Amino acid sequence: MKTISVLGSTGSIGTQTLEVVRSESDRFRISALAAWSSVEILIAQAKEFRPDVVAIGQAELANELRSGVPSDIEVLAGAGSFEELATRAEVAVNGVVGFAGLGVTLAALASGRRLALANKESLIAAGPLVQPLRSTPGAELIPVDSEHSALHQCLRAIEQDSESKHLRQLVLTASGGPFRGFRTEDLERVTVDDALAHPTWSMGPKITVDSSTLMNKGLEVIEAHELFGVPYENIEVVVHPESIVHSMAVFTDGTTMAQLSEPDMKLPIAYALSYPDRTSTPFGAIDWTATKTLHFEPPDMGTFKCLGLAYTAGQLGETAPAWMNGANEAAVDAFLAGSITWASISALIERALEQYDGNAADSIESVIRADRQGREYVARYVAERSR
Ligand code: MG
Question: Which helix (H) or strand (E) holds 216?
Fold first, then answer.
C-alpha cells in the first residue's frame, strides 16, 4: 500500500485525489489530510479515510476538528502543519491554491518524498530554490497539471539520458478558455461569471480566471521550463479547444508524441500517485468508436497579453516569476471581488512587471519578498482607483 498525504484535501484537486484513492483502495492508503478552513468537509473525509493525522490551517478551528474526528487520529493546526503533513507519507499531493503552497513543495522534496504537484505556483515562483531539492535522495517531482503529466508521459518515449539531445520542442495545448475568439473590445464588459464558465475543465475559481486570461498557460510555460529544463524558445503554445490532446513533445527526427484523454483531472492525479505503474481504473478514457474532430490554432497573444508577460518573466528568471505571480494572484483576487475589470488584470501585471527590481532568487525570503512586492503594486493601484 502506498501512503498518500493530501494537502488541500477539500479543494478541487484534493477531492478528486480522494476519488482516485476510493476506486484504487487496494493500492493507496490516505495517511494524512489537511485543509485550510473547510472543517466540516475535512471531518467527513477523516471519518471515511481514517488517516493517521489531520490538519487545519486556521488554528481557531482546531477544537472543532478535534471533537469531530475519531479520537485515534492526531490533530495539528496552523499554517506550518501543512509542511509537517507533507513529510508523513510516501507521496505528498500538493493541492494548495497559489503561492501559499510553497512550504509544502519544499518540505516534501527536502524530506525525500514524491511530490505530486498540482500547485504550479510554488515551482514557478521559487524554481531556483526547488531545483536543488529535487536531488534529495528519494525525492521525486511528478506533475499533476494535465499538460505536464502529458509531457512526462511523452518523454518516457526517449531514454532519460538522451532527452536533451533528441527533444526539439515542447508543445503545450490550451483550451483557449471561455473568451477564445473574443476581440479586445468584446473583452471590456466580460463579468466574473463569464470568466468562471470554462468550456472544458471544471476547476477552482483562481485557475479558471487564469485560464480565461491565458495566464494559466503562461504559468504552465514556466512550469514546463522548470520541470523539463527546456529553454523558453523551444516551448510553444497551441490552442486546442476540445482539450483532448493534453500536450506534445516534438523530437529531432520529426516525430510528435502526444497524450490524449477526455479532460479528467483524475487521470493525471492517478498517474502521479502510481507512476511508474498505472491504475486499473480508467479515468477519462476516450471512446474511439465515436467520430471526433480535433482543432488546433495559434494563440492570440495580442489580445491575451498574459501569455507573453509570462514568457517575459520566465526569461528574466530569478525572482521575476514570483513577482509576476504575486501580481497575478492579487489582480485575480481583485477581479473576483469585483474591484477591477477583467481587462485590468493583464494591464496591472504588465505595469507591475515594469517595476521589477531584478533581485536574485537566492533565499526563501527573497522569493517571498518578490511575491509580496508584486501583490502590493497591484493592491496599491486597486486602492487608489476605488478612492
Ligand atoms: Mg493545466
Answer: helix 215-228
Residue positions counted in the chain: 387
Domains and CATH numbers, the chain: 2-143 (3.40.50.720), 150-274 (no CATH), 316-386 (1.10.1740.10)
Measure 91 CA to ligand 1 centroid, in angstroms: 20
| pLDDT of res. 162 | 64
Q: Residue 198: its pLDDT value, please?
A: 82
Cis-peptide, bond into residue 276, ω within 30° of zero:
yes
Q: Render pLDDT for 224-245 as a digit per residue (tens, 0 to 9).
A: 999 999 999 999 999 999 999 9
How far does the centroid of ligand 1 lie from the alpha carbon of residue 227, in Å? Answer: 14
DSSP secondary structure letters along 268-320:
HHHHHHHTTS--SS-SS---TTS------B---TTT-HHHHHHHHHHHH-TTH
Which residues lie closer than 8 Å to 184 by C-beta, 6 or more apart? 303, 343
Q: Which three cell numbers stand for residue 47?
A: 471519518
pLDDT tens readout for residues 301-314: 999 999 999 999 99
* Neighbouring residues of the ion ligand 1, judged by CB less than 5 Å: 145-147
